[in-house]
Amino acid sequence: MKCTVPLLFFFMLLTCFGVQLFAQDFQALNPERKPIHQGDISKYTDLQLNEDSLVYYADSMYFSTIPDYRIDGSYEFIRVFKNIMKDRSSFAYPFTKLKDKITILDAPDKSFRIYNWEVLRNNVERRYYGVIQLQDKSYIPLVDVSDNIIRGAEDSTFMGTRWFGCMYYKILQREISGEKIYFLLGWNGNSMNSEKKVVEAFGFNTKNQSVFGANVFNILDRGQRKKTNRFILEYQKGSKLTMNYDEETKQIIFDHCESQIGDPAKKYTYIPDGTYDGLKWDGTQWIMYENIVRIKELQQGDAPVDQPIK
After folding, report:
1. Separation CA 270–CA 197 (nearest Å)
2. Beta-strand pair 286-289/217-221
3. How far is it, in rounded angstroms, from Cα 32 to Cα 108?
4. What pLDDT, in 10s, does the model give residues 74-103?
């Protein structure tokens, strides 16, 4: 009986500590616990108020310690985001604050804008979100199904309601027979063992629906050429792999990868080997070339440059 009081006191401390943690997370979701907007809100436009709310909910969506609260934060974020998309002036709005929280990309010809973000639903599951806003003020929500696509993504065509979700970071624009076509460069967290870099074609069909994927990639796979609808480079989780468009050479340049264990079938073992490959546009397709950046092997005593720097 002598231990009863100390044990009771111990459990009361645990309960209080748990309630305190819950309150801290809940505060991140409840706008009544602290102000969302700074200053006199009567001087704010509706877009400014909604942008501040999105910034606020984005913090909950990204940083809540409990996964369910991150999901709740994303639902609140989407609710406010829908209100913004209904505002016909939002296409020209700069979203200066929101750009620090999500990716916002404008097409080179300003015909559309992509809003893009991700949510870590738990320690292994990512969910990607995207919205395409058109110049005519309409918008197209994108529904991520990348978790359900185990194989065949390179040869598939997707629509907005069935989207290979990823985080885009670059939009390129080209023309084929006078028709505009766009190319999106993105990243997908994929799995516990691997990540993916993606280059895919994007455009609109005659019904103004978004279409992802087109047979305009001529790539090399284990020394053999093949045509695909998108280019996907899978590699080992955590590897520092670059893929971006180089203005000087007019190519998409990326790290060449090889399997650490010599097994080309196991993409999760691929890491950069120090050389670079590229995709070059020929007017109708992106053609892949290997070892495009020549690295000169210096002999002992050779200068690293042709002429000394003065």
Report:
1. 13
2. parallel
3. 41
4. 999 999 999 999 998 999 999 999 999 999
